[in-house]
């Protein structure tokens, strides 16, 4: 966490002038009660190009330091930093710099405007809405995607006396920073399910403090499980995870059913217990730099390096959400970054070969009492190290 905050502070200092200038020209949209109304049309933002950016550093916009998406960005930054040849002064050909966003509209806006912001993790449904509502004009040719990522679960923390979603009606509920995925999509979900709340827009730490003091009845966090921030919560706080029922009629088009289990949060979910919730898909989006631009060439190198070293992210040292990622998966309605598409088509290795190799590995395992999938996958990675040609 300290390392993440340190990286975030460096990023903030480096881009601070650009952020202030950009947001002075383009303020974030307001957040009325309905998502469709919240994403109001505004003039198309311009990408800053006059100010020179570090030609070796990819700016990676992510969520707050408490979220899993920031941990994913840190995984990429630290892994790609290793294994590179350094110059006479210790310089490397590729660096990845995590930049703190809000996990929602700010992530998209930063990629669209800041010269040093190249890629961002963002919820697919939210980016789709921004495009459809033309909130920032036509962004179809300004954004491209590198790969779909993992799903982000809705974590609804509630005071112990709140036992069902309907009991939150009229209560004060924190949905996260204004413009975040939690604020926009959480508001939409509650409205669809007919639960009218008094909305608060605090950060994660302040929201947790409000829950403990009783100033809030509930607080929503939208991020991939397991969320390390929730290790701060215990059953002694009189806080629990409240189920969010999945309704096909009201939620099927944009949301997925999911489950939070004891192994995800042993500190607040009892053994053998589980909590039903909903989730959204996330993806790694990029600014669609012109092919002759130096940022395009840097992004191409980033993609080639990330894809080639993708198997490294599947081990125990990295976040479990990496095991949900399928680099070759498609994102309907969006154009994939051209070098990423070429890599996937040309490489005999990558995700497709890894899955085939995993299948060959499974053929040699006994069928009786198989170990759980995570343990099996760890065995597989060790097997790959011993058998690199298979």
Automatic annotation (TrEMBL):
<protein>
    <recommendedName>
        <fullName>C4-dicarboxylate ABC transporter substrate-binding protein</fullName>
    </recommendedName>
</protein>
<dbReference type="Pfam" id="PF16868">
    <property type="entry name" value="NMT1_3"/>
</dbReference>
<dbReference type="InterPro" id="IPR011852">
    <property type="entry name" value="TRAP_TAXI"/>
</dbReference>
<feature type="region of interest" description="Disordered">
    <location>
        <begin position="25"/>
        <end position="55"/>
    </location>
</feature>
<feature type="compositionally biased region" description="Basic and acidic residues">
    <location>
        <begin position="37"/>
        <end position="51"/>
    </location>
</feature>
């Amino acid at each position: 966490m300290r390392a993440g905050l340190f990286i975030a502070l460096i990023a903030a200092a480096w881009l601070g002038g650009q952020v202030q200038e950009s947001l002075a020209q383009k303020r974030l949209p307001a957040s009325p009660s309905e998502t469709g109304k919240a994403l109001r049309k505004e003039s198309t933002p311009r990408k800053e190009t006059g100010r020179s950016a570090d030609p070796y550093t990819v700016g990676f916009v992510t969520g707050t330091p408490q979220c899993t998406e920031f941990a994913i960005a840190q995984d990429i930054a630290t892994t790609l930093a290793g294994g590179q040849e350094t110059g006479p002064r210790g310089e490397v050909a590729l660096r990845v710099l995590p930049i703190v966003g809000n996990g929602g509209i700010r992530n998209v806006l930063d990629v669209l405007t800041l010269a040093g912001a190249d890629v961002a993790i963002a919820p697919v449904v939210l980016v789709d809405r921004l495009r459809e509502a033309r909130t920032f004009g036509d962004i179809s040719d300004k954004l491209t995607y590198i790969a779909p990522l993992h799903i982000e679960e809705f974590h609804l923390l509630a005071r112990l006396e709140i036992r069902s979603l309907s009991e939150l009606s009229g209560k004060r509920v924190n949905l996260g920073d204004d413009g975040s995925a939690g604020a926009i999509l959480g508001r939409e979900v509650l409205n669809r399910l007919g639960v009218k709340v008094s909305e608060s827009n605090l950060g994660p730490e302040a929201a947790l403090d409000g829950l403990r003091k009783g100033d809030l009845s509930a607080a929503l966090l939208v991020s991939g499980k397991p969320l390390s921030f929730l290790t701060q919560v215990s059953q002694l706080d009189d806080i629990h995870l409240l189920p969010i029922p999945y309704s096909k009629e009201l939620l099927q088009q944009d949301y997925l059913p999911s489950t939070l289990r004891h192994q995800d949060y042993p500190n607040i979910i009892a053994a053998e217990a589980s909590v039903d919730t909903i989730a959204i898909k996330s993806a790694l989006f990029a600014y669609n730099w012109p092919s002759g631009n130096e940022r395009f060439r840097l992004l191409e190198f980033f993609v080639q390096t990330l894809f080639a070293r993708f198997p490294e992210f599947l081990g125990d040292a990295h976040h479990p959400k990496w095991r949900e990622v399928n680099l070759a998966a498609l994102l309907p309605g969006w154009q994939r970054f051209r070098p990423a598409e070429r890599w996937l088509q040309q490489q005999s290795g990558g995700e497709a070969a890894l899955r085939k190799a995993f299948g060959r590995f499974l053929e040699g395992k006994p069928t009786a009492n198989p170990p759980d999938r995570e343990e099996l996958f760890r065995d597989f990675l060790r097997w790959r190290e011993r058998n690199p040609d298979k």
